[in-house]
Design goal:
CATH class of the largest domain: Mainly Beta
CATH topology of the largest domain: Lipocalin
Distance between the termini: 60 Å
Strand order of the largest sheet: 1-2-3-4-5-6-7-8-9-10
Order of helices and strands: HHEEEEEEEEEE
Largest sheet: 10 strands, antiparallel, barrel
CATH architecture of the largest domain: Beta Barrel
CATH superfamily of the largest domain: Calycin beta-barrel core domain
Strand content: 35-45%
Shape: globular
């Protein structure tokens, strides 16, 4: 054994002996005072939802969790997608992944949705296989009951997405609109979200 090890063990023994001698002198009152000095565990502020109890707006987005069959039309043509919603980035965003059912798939997108409690609005990032071209713009919008309307202010013309939840049926609809140079809106796509046969919304 090296000399430094012997010195270290001797010092440790001395510290233990001093500690044992001081414990009876401290008494329970000092121990209680020390415990009282410890900071209390941080509790959620009044009006702030806990992690186990999402806000009404987060619960609204959570209704998109799980698997979906997305049917509808885009640019006047039938379209079908497989969809899946999941919480990502430690729950900060709900990601809705969409991929068409063609073989091989021709379109794929990940739509990131979140509610900003400070600004009291929703933020949406729509990323797809077209890359950076369509990823420069972030949509903002607000919810009115079961309907969420967000607008992407593209330079060549705004795009408006309307998500509408149907709690009774357990599904959704998505309306896609484009704004023309005159300011008028026209429908570019319309879709329904339904659960695949034999599946239920995850809890």
């Amino acid at each position: 054994m090296a000399r430094s090890d012997i010195e270290l063990r001797s010092l440790s023994a001395l510290v233990l002996a001093i500690t044992a001698a001081l414990v009876p002198l401290v008494g329970p009152s000092a121990a209680a005072a020390a415990a009282a000095a410890q900071p209390a565990a941080q509790q959620p502020s009044a009006g702030q939802p806990s992690a186990a109890q999402p806000s009404a707006d987060d619960a609204y987005l959570d209704a998109l969790l799980g698997s979906w069959v997305v049917d509808g039309t885009y640019a006047g043509k039938p379209a079908r997608y497989r969809g899946r919603g999941e919480r990502v980035l430690q729950g900060g965003f709900l990601r809705l992944h969409l991929v068409d059912t063609a073989k091989p798939p021709q379109y794929e997108a990940s739509v990131f949705l979140a509610y900003d409690p400070k600004q009291k609005d929703f933020v949406v990032h729509w990323l797809d296989n077209f890359g950076a071209v369509g990823a420069r713009v972030v949509a903002l919008g607000r919810r009115d009951g079961e309907r969420l309307v967000v607008t992407f202010p593209y330079a060549e013309g705004a795009v408006r997405d309307t998500f509408t939840r149907d709690p009774a049926a357990g599904g959704w609809t998505l309306l896609l609109e484009e704004q023309g140079s005159s300011g008028a809106w026209s429908t570019s796509g319309s879709f329904t979200f339904a659960r695949p046969a034999g599946t239920k919304r995850p809890r």
